[in-house]
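Predict the 3D structure for this chain.
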Amino acid sequence: MKLRVIDFGHVSALRSQAVYHGLAEAMTPESDPVLSLVSPSTPYVCVGMHQDIDKEVDRDFCASRSLPIYRRHVGGGAVYLDENQLFTHFIYPAGKAPQRAADLYPLFIEPVVRTYREMGINANYRPVNDIQVEGRKIGGTGAASIGNATVMVGSFMIDFDTETMSKCLKVPSEKFRDKLRQTLDDYMTTMVKQLGAKPDRTALKSTFLRHCADVLGVEPVIDQPTAAELAAIARAEAELSDPEWTEVQHRKLVALGVKIAANTHLTEAAHKAPGGLIRVNLLDAGGSVADLVLSGDFTCLPPDGVDRLAAALKGTALEPAALQAAADAAIVRLGLDLPGVSGADIATAIGAAQQPHT
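Done. Predicted structure below.
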């Protein structure tokens, strides 16, 4: 199978996200799979599809540094990105890729791991979707369904600005921010830290493509985007920069607050599942779920599954067994793929938001 390789080089912050969204939207079931390579020429902050920006990002700091905030159609957490990351986007027709995220991650992470190792970095895959070097993270990945395509995004972490990253994130105090910066320094590593210098990008890409061919059983062919793909990328730029999309989670919470009436309580809580942080905003009406917003840095396929799961839980009694049974049933009925997140995790997160009734 041919793998079209499109190297966009360094592009604007917005286009660095828009390229894979557009390529996916332009893909048909008969298309050849695509690997896009790109780096942003200017820095920005990118939040996961299901995240509440106000909970995760320090908007004032980002504004002071003229850092745009974009929401991607892929799960995961908020991250500061700049020219020192080489993004890798595998975009496959859905029928030509594994159907479950648990199968996607190890397959498409393996060429990255092999590339790191050939360059002298002892990298390993760590489930669910991380790459580590002797216990330190050197990269995360994310999966999404966009249009007719299955998308797997990742990056080569050439270098990383932990100081700016710590300032971009929402924290309760400056003391906590200092601790966050130290934690990022301790837990994350980069190619620069491992090798002592930045790698040659041409050699890095060449090595990576060779391992893609071996692992994925494809023939990498250097290519250019078609006119239709460029038009789809332009449309993706317009969508990703539209405040209606960027603030989609905020609008859900506003709508939830409007519904408050007598004998209802609007509460929130969070629970850390193996697959990521789950945030809950719960409208509790006398011991049952009146309404619900689920957010966080987990992955859900298909992307709209999070909202459909929340809607399916309306009316459920706020009791652990009932919540878990309803969540498990809804996940199966809706065909959701939530790697590292179970019905028990959803129930725990909702239960933590419940207020005792007297």
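The chain has a mean pLDDT of 95.
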